[in-house]
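Subject: design request, 479 residues
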């Protein structure tokens, strides 16, 4: 099942169904308990009413049993023998004795006088002692009874009564369960009838609500499919006016498309610029080789070597940029920046302007990273300073907060303030008149900033005290 709407509708329907079934069962149980409790109360009231009459020594034939049809009564003596049943009771179960035919009992003879009146006991005017009804909770039980040919279920309550003669009788009175069963059946039928209808309503509403909620997602999907088919990264998906997760998804998708468009554009520009930069040394080298083939005496060997070196350097820069763009992570080796700077400067004895190194003796400036890449940054900054300096190139290493600052200064013309970010773009050279033989390809500063960022640092340019440019490389100290 691949449809989100279908899964949501089925899931919601199942949850509601389980909840309704559980609630319905609970309602039925509570209703049944309440109705049985009412039947128990009715049976107890009927039993205590009959027991009260017996405690007053009322004869069996004089008992007031107006509702004997709804409340069948059975009376047993201390030996469990049936001594009285209500009129019309033909069969009974669930009481102390299943009998419905009264048997003579000698102990029952000491009840009230035949005329039901109380006689004086002697001449002192005292009334004879009266019986009592047990105050204990009655015994309750389920059973059946047949009254006038009608068989039904009953709840029976057993109450003991003691006559004035000390005879203990047990009165079993029943209350019909037919109303309880009818009420439970009615409620159960209503639930069984309404449950499918309610579940259908829940499924339909969930389907419609989910469809409405997912409509923007379908719009996003269609637009993304169109973008994929047309390869037009300038297009954007529609953003809903709501502030829910779908709107956040649309905004994130558009942000991703923006970044992807910029990345593709940067890649295209990089390929175009790289092709343009490679074309010049390759063409120059080819021309020199063709001339040398036709006129060996005219071979400009130093020029061919210079073009080859330039081509090699450019290829190395392009390869490093490709690795950085691919997300190559820097190393985690511990580097001593002061020693690295001294080593890099010591290898530049042939530079046009000697480099002045300013590093505090004995101080340790350690960072984590790739030694080759950090050395490449320092070398690129020194190359840039040598290209623009008039007579001074200086490099200093110092602590700066939680990091190490490497600053390369020159006394050249400096960098205009409005161009201080642009110079870090790839293939950018501010002096368009400078020949490609004297200037670089415009990749050195771009590589330096990218390496600094991947090491958790920064690379910025400022105005040097000498009037030229001051490039500041900041790297975090080693942990």
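Subject: RE: design request

Done. Sequence follows.
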């Amino acid at each position: 099942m691949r449809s989100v709407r279908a899964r949501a509708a089925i899931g919601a329907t199942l949850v509601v169904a389980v909840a309704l079934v559980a609630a319905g069962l609970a309602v039925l149980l509570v209703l049944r308990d309440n109705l049985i409790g009412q039947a128990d109360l009715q049976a107890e009231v009927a039993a205590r009413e009959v027991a009260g009459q017996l405690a007053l020594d009322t004869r069996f034939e004089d008992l007031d049993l107006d509702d004997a049809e709804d409340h069948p009564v059975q009376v047993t003596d201390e030996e469990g023998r049936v001594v009285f049943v209500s009129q019309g009771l033909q069969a009974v179960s669930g009481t102390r004795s299943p009998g419905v035919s009264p048997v003579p009992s000698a102990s029952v003879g000491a009840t009230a006088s035949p005329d039901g009146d109380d006689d004086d006991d002697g001449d002192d005017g005292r009334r004879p002692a009266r019986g009592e009804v047990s105050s204990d909770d009655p015994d309750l039980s389920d059973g059946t009874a047949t009254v006038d040919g009608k068989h039904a279920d009953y709840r029976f309550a057993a109450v003991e009564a003691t006559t004035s003669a000390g005879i203990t009788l047990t009165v079993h009175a029943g209350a019909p369960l037919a109303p309880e069963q009818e009420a439970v059946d009615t409620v159960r039928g209503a639930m069984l009838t309404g449950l499918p209808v309610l579940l259908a309503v829940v499924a339909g509403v969930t389907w419609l609500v989910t469809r409405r909620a997912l409509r923007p997602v379908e719009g996003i999907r269609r637009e993304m499919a169109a973008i994929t088919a047309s390869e037009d990264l300038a297009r954007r998906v529609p953003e809903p006016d709501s502030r829910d997760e779908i709107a956040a998804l649309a905004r994130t998708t558009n942000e991703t498309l923006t970044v992807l468009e910029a990345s593709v554009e940067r890649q295209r520009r990089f390929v175009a610029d790289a092709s343009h930069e490679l074309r010049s040394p390759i063409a120059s080298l080819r021309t020199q080789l063709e001339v040398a083939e036709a006129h060996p005496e005219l071979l400009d060997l130093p020029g061919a070597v210079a073009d080859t070196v330039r081509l090699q350097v450019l290829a190395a820069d392009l390869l490093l940029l490709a690795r950085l763009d691919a997300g190559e992570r820097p190393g985690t080796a511990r580097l001593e920046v002061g020693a690295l700077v001294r080593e890099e400067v010591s290898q530049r004895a042939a530079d046009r302007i000697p480099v002045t190194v300013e590093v505090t003796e004995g101080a340790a400036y350690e960072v984590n990273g790739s030694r080759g890449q950090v050395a490449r940054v320092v070398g690129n900054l020194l190359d840039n300073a040598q290209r623009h300096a008039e007579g001074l190139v200086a490099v200093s290493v110092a602590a700066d907060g939680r990091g190490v600052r490497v600053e390369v200064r020159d006394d050249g013309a400096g960098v205009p303030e409005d161009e201080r970010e642009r110079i870090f773009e790839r293939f950018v050279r501010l002096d368009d008149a400078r020949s490609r033989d004297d200037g670089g390809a415009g990749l050195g500063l771009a590589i330096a900033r990218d390496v600094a960022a991947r090491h958790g640092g920064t690379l910025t340019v400022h105005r040097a005290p000498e009037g030229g440019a001051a490039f500041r490389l900041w790297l975090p100290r080693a942990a």
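The first helix runs from residue 4 to 55.
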